[in-house]
C-alpha cells in the first residue's frame, strides 16, 4: 500500500474532552460588571474602582456598589442601586479557564455609566433642568405673552447675575473684609477683656490661701480702713444694749452684721477685735450705700443716709461705684456698678467669715433673690455648697430648711464661671 495514501478522518462518534462547569452563587471582590456607555465612547485605557458600603444597614445594601473612573476632563460613574438599579433581568458571564478546562458562571450586574464634565461638575442636573424650563417659558412669553409679561421677562434678564462674573467682586469683598478686620481683637483678647470687665476686685489666682485671692486693700484702702472709728462700739454700756449698738451702724436692718457685732462685743476677751469691728462697720456702710444708691449723685444727702461717716469713705464710694454717663456732671450707680457694690461687700464678708459665707442671711438682709446672690458669689470664684448634717445641727435648723441652705466657699485656686455672651432681646 502506498505511503501517500490518505489518513482516515477521526470518527464523529469519538467522545470530546469533558469541560467542568461551576456556578458562583454570589458576588465577591472579583465580580465582573457589564457596563453600557450611552452616548459616549469610553477610552480604551479607562479603569474603574469599585466601592461598597462599609457598614450596610440592611442586608439588601450589602450588594450595593459604586463604580468610578476618570480621565483628565471627564468623570465616569455607575451604580447598581437607586436610579441605576436594573431589575428586569439578571446577567451572568462565563469565564473559561483553559489550563483547568473549567468554565465558571458568575453573576455580572449590569450598570449604566454616566459621565460628568469636570469643568461643569458644580452645575447640578436640577439647575440645568430649571434653566431649560425657564428658557422655554420665556420663549413662549416673548412669543405669545402680554405686554406686561414681556416687560417682566426683559426686567428679569436685565437683572440676572452670572455667577462667573462674581469672582472678581468676591475677591474684592474678601480683601475689604480682611482690611477692615485687621485690627479687630482676637478671641483671646475678647475673653481677657470680658474677664477684666467682671464687677469684682482683681483676683490673685496664684495665691495659695483664700485670703490672698482678694486682699483687703483691693476693696478698701489702708487710709479708709484706718480712719474708721470703732471706739463708740466699745463703750461699756453697749455690751448689753442691743438697740444702742444697732444705732451706731449705717444699716440697721442687717441680721448678718448685728449677729457678728454681738458676738464680738459679748466676748470675754480683754481686747476686742477692733479689726473685725472695722470690717463689720464697712460692710454695714456698703449695705447702706447699696440701699440708697439712687441718691449717689447728691453727696450731702448720701452722706446723711450713710450715717455721716468720714468724708474719705463717701468720696471712695462715689469714685469706686459710680459713673458719669454721657458726660453728665452728676454721678449715677448703673446696674453693673451695683453688682460691683455687692461683689465688694461679699469679699468683706468672706474675710469676716473665714471664707465660708451664709448666703441666705445676706440675701434676706438686702432683699436679693437667691439665684442672683449665688451668681455673684460664683463670679468671685466661690463654690456654692449645701449644708452637712453636722452643720445643720450646729445651726439648729430643720432638714427642710437645710435643703435651701447654701454657703459660698472660696478655695484655692478660685473657679470662675465661663463668660457668657449677652444676647440682645428682640424688639
Automatic annotation (TrEMBL):
One of its GO terms (cellular component) is nucleolus. Its main location: nucleus. It comes from Saitoella complicata (strain BCRC 22490 / CBS 7301 / JCM 7358 / NBRC 10748 / NRRL Y-17804). The keyword Zinc-finger does not apply. One of its GO terms (molecular function) is DNA binding. This is DNA-directed RNA polymerase I subunit RPA49. It holds the Pfam family RNA_pol_I_A49. Keywords: DNA-directed RNA polymerase, Nucleus, Transcription. Residues 185-199 have a biased composition (Basic and acidic residues). One of its GO terms (biological process) is DNA-templated transcription. Residues 1-20, 183-211 are annotated as: Disordered.
